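Fold it.
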Amino acid sequence: MHDAAAGPLTAPERIDDLNRRSAQLVFQHPREALALSEEALALARAGADQPRMARSALRLGAAASVAGDDERAARLLAEALALFRAVGDPQGEAGACLSLSTVHRNLGRLIDGLHHALQGLDIARREGLLRLQGACLSNVGLIHTDLGDHQKALEAFLAALPLARAADAPADEAMCLTNLGDVCQQAGDAAQALTHYGAALEIVRRLGHTHHELDALCGLGQAHVKLEQAEEALSLLRGALDVAQARGDHKCDARLLLGLGDAYQQLGQPEDALRAYRQARTLAAEARAAHEESRALRWLGALHLKRRESAQALDALEEGLALAQGCRAQRDEQEIHALLSETHRQRGAYRAALQHYQRYHQLERELDNLQALHRTQALLLQVDLDQARHAAEAQRQINARLTELNQELAAANEQKAELLARLQTQAEHLVRLSQEDALTGLSNRRHFNECLDAEVQRALRYGRPLSVVLLDIDHFKAVNDTYSHQVGDLVLRELAGLLRASCRQMDTVARFGGEEFVLLLPETGGPAAQTMCERLRQAVQNHDWGGLHPGLRLTVSLGVASYCTLGAAQLLALADAELYRAKGAGRNRVSLASEPGCE
């Protein structure tokens, strides 16, 4: 707080004061926070004060996001990130990456969001910034939740929780607990979700954070509904609704009212449920929250359909469909098509019912394909970042060693020949380490990428066949859980030996990550690749794994892409899609996608 007796604020002090006040108001009064940060950024630009320009752009981007303008927020945060890098502020850089991750997620750009979250996490780990490590991990978890990968989401949130506690950041701890509740609820474990929401609620009430209290209460209410504890849900959601109405948060009001409507339905009070859904729709419209309004109309239409009020159901669902299409909420659009199909069937309009039914299944296929693509991109992004980090560390070690050796050479010139020989040996060893996976001795991802790029160029130039195989151990987590991680490591080494023995000298065998391996088969078309992979699958199935641990048995699933006209990334993505297809078809099998004429 500025002491008026000390005189007027200097320009830097004024900028800092504006940003401090913006941070305090951003959740309760985002428009006021926006105005304060805009003034701060204008002052910083006028004074060419780059550090304060960076902080002001970061604060303004956060306020713009809370106010609902994520496109503007993304531009401001990208500016902040560039400025933090220019002034050499790693903490600010990590914070900007975190905020950019949130904004890209809000915009549905999940892979961009994951990229920034992992970048921020890498910086925070390098600088020992515990709180930012936890926050970036939480965003990684949220994005994996959106991608439908509940296991990876749980792993990220559980890793973030102790970091928030170690950093003495109770607000972050509460948000992490709320996120854990959300992912447990989505995974169908409403009872465990209750535990996490309850712990989060206790913290935010102690802190007096109303915004986060409403998130926890909303989650608790929904969990009670899923557990068919409608009375408990009503009590919680009514109390939360009073708090939200006092804050004038219509978007949150709408979410709470949808939960109330579900609880009323469980209690057999359809008229109360209808009123709740209608009020939710009205408040969402006032808040310009198209997604929430679409959901309210979907719930309203479903209830009318249940009551066989097909005309009212049709009106609500068609309006909800238009909103869902406008805000690109494809999952909601898919569900509305299903309800519209049933509504038209109830009215005897079978042609219209069929059209909506067909559109429902078309969207289902499109969304499943998109989710599979995003998961592949997320995996490749993680692998690439890991490899870049390992390569940078290897280079740092080489540089450190070179510096040390040069100092020794300057001090003792007579040992020059011996030291140079030692340097050459160590450099070769480090190069070899940079190409090998430490556990299995196979090629690592970086070396595989180099081989893949070269073979793809050769295949494209000469029209020669080329196959890429992604191989995954079926139910490998169960091996670790049942027999120990030590046995799991032995399994990976044993499988690596089988792969080497089954492949030709010209082939490249690499560990892709975790329990996944990848094979590069030059001059190999689809039929030959499938035959070889089938032979490998049987070899793994028939192998005596009991030597590692009694009772141990293993199988693998393989996805094969055989083309001579595709780039490296396309080949990998296609092989990954075939791997998912093999797993989805029951595991312990080979799935092939090949290009006719490239045999």
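The radius of gyration is 29 Å.
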